[in-house]
Amino acid sequence: MFYQLIYVSRAVAPLSAEAMQSLVTQARNFNSIHHITGVLFYDGEHFAQILEGAEAEVENLFARIQADTRHRQVTVVTRSRRPRREYPHWGMAGHLLASAQFAELVKCLPDEPEQFAPRSLRVRLEPFVAHSPRL
Ligand SMILES: Cc1cc2nc3c(=O)[nH]c(=O)nc-3n(C[C@H](O)[C@H](O)[C@H](O)COP(=O)(O)O)c2cc1C
């Protein structure tokens, strides 16, 4: 069983393209060492992130992310156990969304872990991944 944590947060100040790039690069390095996969969405004001891996690794990383002063109002959407990863090949994909896209994305996130069959979240989020620039 894998563990999946989804949260949303609000940037304290807009991050430049360079700052976002370095955040994602650093995240990829750390996550690959700790076998954490997932995706990070950013619209210039808000973040939404899906973190997947072993429970202890994910919670340990999330504690560091929560303490990060670049964002606030870090709100967990769901914590769930899943039979497999939704993003097995992505150390941490980063996608830049328009504000309207981000608002739509948030509507697609689950309220409860049971609401989504495995992989269906990925299917629902696929359009946001496909139609946004990669970081
Ligand atoms: C929105 C957001 C998402 C982040 N995602 C990750 C991540 O997936 N992996 C990671 O190693 N760091 C991520 N970070 C950076 C961590 O919060 C933290 O800066 C980094 O792990 C270094 O931690 P340390 O200062 O305790 O060494 C993220 C930061 C923010 C603001």
Automatic annotation (TrEMBL):
This is BLUF domain-containing protein. Residues 2-93 form the BLUF domain. InterPro entries: Acylphosphatase-like_dom_sf, BLUF_domain. It comes from Hymenobacter qilianensis. PROSITE patterns: BLUF. One of its GO terms (molecular function) is blue light photoreceptor activity. SUPFAM superfamilies: Acylphosphatase/BLUF domain-like (SSF54975). Pfam families: BLUF.
